[in-house]
Amino acid sequence: MTEPLRPHEVREVEALRVLAHPMRQRILRYLREAGPATSTTLARDLGENSGIMSYHLRQLAEHGFVREVPERGQGRERWWQATPEPPWIPREGLSPEAQAEASGLLRPLRLAEDLEGFERFRTARGAGAMGEWGRGTWAVQRARLTLTRDEAARLIADQQELIGRYQRDRSDAPDGARAVVFGFLVYPEPPRDEAGQQDDP
Questions:
Q1: How many angstroms separate the CA atoms of 67 and 174, rounded?
Q2: How far apart are CA 56 and CA 30, in angstroms?
Q3: At residue 86, does pLDDT exceed 60?
Q4: Average of per-residue pLDDT values in the chain
Q5: What one-character DSSP code corresponds to residue 38?
């Protein structure tokens, strides 16, 4: 296995603002799933004009979320790819402004998209379209743990380290590799009275 990629730590307000923009999230997701693309390709597939896409790409590049692929460009054509280092927003030490921007990254829409993707996988698996990829490559798990605050923080850090071990640039992937979606949601339950709920009977 290759050397784990170091996460790209994001804590500056402006970088978080760039990353939280819904269209830029769509651009990053597209580049990670489909590979390098031009602003024209992104405009066609994401339903926007190429001028707007070029602006978003420049903003993402300025903060290290995407980079140009000069060897693929011809003339004025510019190709872009997502940088391989996964963005990582630290849970400690963010300013109130940065915390507010970071909250924009936690959108229910992304969870809904992941659930829709999982249902598409299940349908394809049931139809036999996944072949060997339909066996031993997926999991659904929910655990309710009783942890101290330090243990909860350690759990998140350990998970990020684990993801980093398997993260690689698409160009470094061996033959037969394909995208695998990994979702991770951790949160402490608020006290029942703070949540405005009654204790379970």
A1: 22
A2: 13
A3: yes
A4: 82
A5: E
138-161 burial, b at 16+ Cβ within 10 Å, e below that, comes to eeeeeeeeeeeeeeeeeeeeeeee
Residue 43 backbone zone (phi > 0: left; psi -120 to 50: alpha; other: beta): alpha
Q: Among candidates 66, 69, 77, which has minimal Cα distance to 40? A: 77
pTM exceeds cut of 0.90: no
Q: For the chain, list the strands marked E by DSSP.
A: 8-9, 37-38, 66-68, 79-82, 87-88
Closest-CA residue to 172 (of 88, 79, 84): 84
DSSP 92: S
pLDDT at 109 over 70: no
Q: Supply angle C-alpha 139, 171, 107, rounded to 5.
A: 45
